[in-house]
Design a protein that fits this description.
about 200 residues; 4 helices; binds zinc ion; Lysozyme-like; alpha/beta
Length: about 200
């Protein structure tokens, strides 16, 4: 576990202990899934986790005018996780849908034809989501695990991607960004992880 610039770098194996060791005075009901789009795999050199995270933080503060980096966690192509903003505060990730949420940004562009998710990254995304469900006692369904795509980026209204939307976390994120893709492809992996390794 390495700390720098207020961020903690964790392997997925370390995350479990870390998340159970910290106190969080906030009700968590939703886990948001995002991709960063840019920076993406082309910007990752295997060693620049902190630099990329610091750059995202600067962008969020200087360009967007936010008080901190938007997300709580960033996952990387090698399966590493970096913490971001305080879990005690709401993230800045889906307009008007940040209360009671944890925001995870997966470094990459997972639209069809762009970055091919590595096995390590895939494993971390599944396990991280499973551990958060366990820690906050959330059911594995599409109410507690949500994709940015399902919300109107301007109003925060949930439309499941039928109208105004972003592609985030990518049109090829675990086979697609629709609600049925999540139910068919992503949630079973999270559930299986929880059953195999109850935490
Ligand atoms: Zn997003």
């Amino acid at each position: 576990m390495i700390k720098r610039s207020g961020f903690t770098k964790l392997k997925i194996q370390q995350f479990e202990e870390w998340i159970t060791s910290i106190k969080i005075e906030r009700k968590v009901l939703i886990i948001q899934q995002h991709h960063t789009q840019s920076p993406n795999y082309a910007h990752f050199d295997g060693n620049n986790h902190f630099e990329l995270q610091e750059r995202m933080k600067s962008f969020h503060i200087l360009r967007n005018g936010w008080r901190d980096i938007g997300q709580h966690f960033t996952t990387f192509p090698d399966g590493i996780i970096l913490t971001g903003g305080s879990l005690g505060r709401s993230p800045a990730c889906i307009r008007r849908k940040n209360a009671n949420a944890i925001c995870i940004e997966h470094l990459g562009n997972f639209d069809t034809g762009r970055d091919e998710m590595t096995d390590e990254h895939r494993e971390t995304i599944i396990r991280l989501t499973a551990m958060l469900c366990s820690r906050f006692e959330l059911p594995v369904n599409t109410e507690s695990i949500v994709y940015h795509h399902w919300f109107d980026p301007d109003t925060g209204q949930r439309n499941n991607g039928s109208e105004n939307h972003k592609s985030c976390p990518g049109t090829n994120f675990f086979g697609g960004n629709k609600v049925h893709d999540c139910i068919d492809n992503f949630l079973p992996l999270v559930s299986a992880r929880l059953h195999e390794h109850p935490v």
